[in-house]
């Protein structure tokens, strides 16, 4: 569904990522690690088409990102839920509406989805914050809302960029549970994180592969965690 | 205009949701509405000017229908003789269809507005007037003058066309100016709306980014802006039209004597024309905003 073929990316200087090939199989669970500045965010952006590779190919659902027009990208994003590192919302709308935004823009705001929304808001511990405006919320609350927004469309793939960066251990466990739950439903998950405890916690419950970015390359990390 | 039904449908059905995703913007909204109102107000006057000059040109055109006047001033004894000579001469002039001496009563009626009904005009040395109807091709005025000089020394030929043609031309130009003004007003409205829409799009860059992230298509994002600006333009133009029409209604009513200024209003069916201004403003706003939104969005990544 997401396929990188000899991909390289450079922001203008030297290559940040080189020679990356990866095929995300449906239902797989990946962690992405690497030191800060290694290019985790950049890699994820390549994976959802926000960046076009400077060389090589990226295919989303069998379509080369270079051949996709803006509407194709919009459609791809409905199938790839993304949790950004710096999650952004529509600040004038209550958080519940923000979480429901993907449904809204795709014309799928049905009654059934509405009850899913409530459930989801409870899942991420925001059940009683539904009417809060994003600027009034803490960093952790925003991250949980961003995760809820990323999964509400029941996407095929969820890409999460340090989703537990601002939440306490208990909440990060809950978010992880949600992602594992989604994975068991067949969704493909990729989590960028440098929280090794999180990876260990996941490994006991799900068959997760750990990828590491080092020296501009993507490597499969061994069992040495 | 096959797009019109879609446009109208979007007004009526609307997409309140799409509208909600863009934060409300109080002051710029008021400015857009005001600008649309002012433009509609101006359009009313340009329209009134066009219609009035159109009517005027048509009237002068009719009068131009080839008539002129021969005025004979002669001592009392020679008046009848010179009149007869002039009529004889006119009969043989190519291009003159008919010529007829006005009766004393007709001449009296012409003078009455100036001297009142009680003046004994029979006793005054008034010139005799001969009304000339020309054929389609007209006559050679210079040649006629020459011949009159020889045979009817007291005759002065008043060729109406000489001064009416430029007037008719002026009326035509005025009408054209009115139409050009309406087009300019429409273009200015489009410009103002485009600038306002661009400002709104720039101010809402983060909103647009968020919408893109969650999978909104450009058409959805554009719709939110388009609907808003179209409704503002409609509302503003409606207010402007009401104000403009009120101002036109307050002008003095058209007089039968047909002064140009008193005719500056709407007559008959033309009262309906201003009703087209708000929908037209809406259509202009719709396309201006849609174009601005699509262009801005396509430049994003
Ligand atoms: N838009 C950008 N333009 C130029 N350089 C960038 C841009 N975004 C990120 N970088 C650089 O690319 C490198 C990798 O960034 P990033 O992918 O965010 O790493 P990570 O998420 O692993 O911390 C960093 O050195 C960063 O400064
Ligand atoms: Mg990062």
From TrEMBL, chain A:
The gene is ftsE. Keywords: ATP-binding, Cell cycle, Cell division, Nucleotide-binding. It comes from Shimia thalassica. GO terms for molecular function: ATP binding; ATP hydrolysis activity; transmembrane transporter activity. One of its GO terms (cellular component) is plasma membrane. Residues 2-225 form the ABC transporter domain. GO terms for biological process: cell division. This is Cell division ATP-binding protein FtsE. InterPro entries: AAA+_ATPase, ABC_transporter-like_ATP-bd, ABC_transporter-like_CS, ABC_transpr_LolD-like, P-loop_NTPase.
Automatic annotation (TrEMBL), chain B:
GO terms for biological process: cell division. Keywords: Cell cycle, Cell division, Cell membrane, Membrane, Transmembrane, Transmembrane helix. It comes from the Bacteria. It holds the Pfam family FtsX. Its main location: membrane. It is found in: Cell membrane. It is a multi-pass membrane protein. GO terms for cellular component: cell division site; plasma membrane. InterPro entries: ABC3_permease_C (IPR003838), FtsX (IPR004513). Residues 181-286 form the ABC3 transporter permease C-terminal domain. The keyword Metal-binding does not apply. The chain crosses the membrane at residues 27-49, 174-197, 203-221, 233-251, 271-289. This is Cell division ABC transporter subunit FtsX.
């Amino acid at each position: 569904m997401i396929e990188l073929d000899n991909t390289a990316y450079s922001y203008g200087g030297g290559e940040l990522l080189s020679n990356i090939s990866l095929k995300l199989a449906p239902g797989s669970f990946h962690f992405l690690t690497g030191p800060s500045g290694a290019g985790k965010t950049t890699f994820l952006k390549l994976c959802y088409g926000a960046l076009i590779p400077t060389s090589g190919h990226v295919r989303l659902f069998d379509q080369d990102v270079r051949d996709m027009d803006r509407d194709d990208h919009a459609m791809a994003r409905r199938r790839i839920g993304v949790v950004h590192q710096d999650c952004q919302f529509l600040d004038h709308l209550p958080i519940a509406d923000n979480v429901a935004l993907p449904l809204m823009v795709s014309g799928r705001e049905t009654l059934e989805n509405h009850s899913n929304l409530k459930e989801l808001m409870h899942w991420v511990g925001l059940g009683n914050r539904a009417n809060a405006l994003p600027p009034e919320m803490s960093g952790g609350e925003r991250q949980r809302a961003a995760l809820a927004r990323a999964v509400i469309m029941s996407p095929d793939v969820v890409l999460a960029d340090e989703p537990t960066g601002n939440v306490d251990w208990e909440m990060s466990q809950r978010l992880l549970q949600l992602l594992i739950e989604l994975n068991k439903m067949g969704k493909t998950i990729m989590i960028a994180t440098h929280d090794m405890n999180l990876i260990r916690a996941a490994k006991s419950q799900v068959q997760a592969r750990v990828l590491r970015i080092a020296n501009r390359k993507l490597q499969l990390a061994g069992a040495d965690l | 205009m096959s797009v019109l039904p879609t446009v109208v449908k979007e007004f009526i059905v609307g997409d309140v949701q799409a509208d909600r995703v863009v934060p409300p913007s109080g002051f710029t909204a008021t400015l857009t509405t005001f600008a649309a109102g002012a433009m509609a107000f101006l359009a009313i006057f340009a329209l009134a000017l066009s219609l009035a000059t159109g009517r005027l040109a048509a009237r002068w055109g009719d009068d131009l229908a080839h008539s002129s006047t021969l005025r004979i001033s002669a001592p009392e004894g020679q008046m009848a003789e010179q009149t007869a000579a002039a009529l004889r001469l006119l009969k043989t002039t190519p291009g003159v269809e008919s010529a007829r001496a006005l009766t004393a009563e007709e001449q009296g009626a012409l003078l009455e507005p100036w001297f009142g009904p009680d003046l004994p005009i029979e006793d005054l040395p008034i010139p005799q007037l001969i009304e000339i109807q020309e054929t389609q091709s007209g006559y050679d005025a210079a040649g006629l003058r020459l011949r009159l000089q020889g045979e009817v020394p007291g005759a002065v030929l008043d060729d109406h066309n000489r001064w009416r043609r430029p007037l008719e031309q002026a009326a035509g130009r005025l009408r054209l100016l009115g139409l050009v003004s309406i087009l300019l007003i429409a273009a200015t409205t489009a410009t103002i709306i485009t600038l306002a829409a661009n400002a709104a799009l720039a101010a809402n860059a983060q909103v647009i980014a968020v919408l893109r992230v969650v999978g909104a298509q450009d058409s959805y994002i554009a719709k939110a802006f388009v609907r808003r600006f179209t409704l503002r333009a409609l509302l503003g133009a409606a207010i402007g039209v009401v104000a403009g029409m009120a101002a036109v209604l307050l002008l003095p009513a058209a007089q039968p004597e047909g002064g140009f200024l008193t005719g500056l209003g709407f007559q008959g069916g033309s009262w309906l024309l201003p009703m087209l201004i708000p929908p037209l403003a809406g259509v202009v706003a719709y396309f201006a905003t849609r174009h601005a939104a699509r262009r801005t969005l396509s430049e994003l990544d």
